[in-house]
Amino acid sequence: QWYQRRVRGAGPGQLGINLSAPPGSGTDCHAKEVSPGHMTVVFTPSSSGEHTVNLTYNDNNVPATPVVIKVVPKADVKAVVVSGDGVREGQVGKTAVFTIDASAAGPGELDVKVRGPKNPIEVTPIEIGDGLYEVSYTPSEEGSHIIAVKYADQHVPGSAFRPQIIKASSADDVVAYGKGLEGGIPGTDNEFYVDTSKAGDGDLGITIVGPDGTSSSPDVTKITENHYKVVYPVGKEGDYNINVTWNDIHIHKSPFNINVRTPFNPSSVLATGPGLMHGVVGKLSLFEVDCRAAGNGPLNINVEDDDHNLIPVKVSETQPSCYDVSFIPQTAQPHFVTVNYNDFNIKGSPFKVNVMARPEKDINLGGEGKIRVYYSTTTSSEKIRHNCRFLQSLLERKKVHLREDFEPWIPIDIGMDREERNRIFEKAGVRKTPMLFIDDQYVGDYDDVVELDEIGELDRLLSYCALKYRNLKTVEEARKADEILRRQAAAELEQ
């Protein structure tokens, strides 16, 4: 490093240099005259960090000093990694892509040049992350190309690269379509079609690779000059690979992977847990999905709020065909959970989840595993009195009042102090009565309960509470019933 100052015109005197470097730097610093009255201060830093140069002339500070010089680490070009098909191979007229990872190399300038057998190709690296770059180019001629990648004026490991560019294959113009490329049922024949009309002359090749890895040839019938029907038998369950080639080159999307499964029954999929009933902003909501009795099929779960914003979902398989599902609501509004099995919504899906604002502290009303209704005996509202009668009638039709886990209706204005009443309101997030709580969680007022009943959700909540109540009778069974809650706490820490 160097720093220049002019002292011409200052008269005879002594130039003093003081360099402050980071601890352990041990930097040598000296001045040399490059012309009469013109001095250059030179130092070679041995470590990175801020270096401060202070100059004096005849023991007087030189104007505009001290000067702070920031020294950065030297680039480690060996840490640069170049990867991707674009540095190995490509096809004429098709974009080739490769990446350059210089995130661990320190500061430096990146320089990339691509040249074909006859002409250079202009490229511009695009930074897609911190020190991570993507480079694309479209070759226009066959043959060996040269890709030179320099960082901090030095070739990176492997540079210069020599990708081989070949003429584009007409296999990309072959089209395969049909149900036989999408899935199947054991013991049946699958069929699909192949159209080669735009591919020119060539040879069609098709092989079927079963779940056990054995290959077989299907029955191929030529319908027209360039149109083929393909039929192959589906044996046992598993993944099948359908290889379709043209002149020994795989066509677009080949090999096709299809999943063969026995018929399924989405109504046998069970989704249970508090995450399908209620939630709190910023807290993990968790539920379970059991697909063991439904046959084989893909499980898809989608969560969105009332404004149709998608919420990230985490799905973990705890045992074969059993899953833990979690999500974290971000806004206090209804959320909707869609549980889809083999492209069919299961019973009750989409589930409406009431999400409340997160209270300053968690409130336990002591109603775990119980059904409670809070109401007002002194209200002057005729609508509220009617809603109380209607809710009572609805619950009695379901014989809730005869259940062990049901507590008699609890008045909030008789025998209850203000503090306890406010805790109930704060837990519910509203002050509107009557209030139905199931398993110490607010379900809703009369209108909410009617809506839940119409979609079958109320019966599911009541069944869940009955199971929770029975399981809580013994310590051992309580531990099993609360296993999902412990996993929720562990998952929250993981977040």
What keyword list fits this structure?
single chain, 495 residues, mainly beta, six-stranded mixed beta sheet, five-stranded antiparallel beta sheet, 41 strands, disordered N terminus
Structural description of this entry:
The chain is mainly beta. Helices cover about 15% and strands about 40% of the residues. It has six helices and 41 strands. Strand 25 (about 240-245) and strand 26 form a beta hairpin. The longest helix is centred in the C-terminal third of the chain and has 16 residues, at about 380-395. It is flat, with a radius of gyration of 37 Å. The two termini are about 45 Å apart.
Structure summary:
By secondary structure, this protein is mainly beta. The protein contains six helices and 41 strands.
The amount of helix comes to 10-25%
Which stretches are poorly predicted, pLDDT < 50 over at least 5 residues?
1-5
The major pleated sheet works out as: 6 strands, mixed
**Beta-strand percentage?**
35-45%
Number of helices: 6
- State the end-to-end CA separation: 47 Å
How would you classify the helix and strand content by structural class? mainly beta
- Shape, principal axes of CA atoms: flat
Round the Cα radius of gyration to an integer and report it.
37 Å
How many strand elements? 41
Mean pLDDT: 85
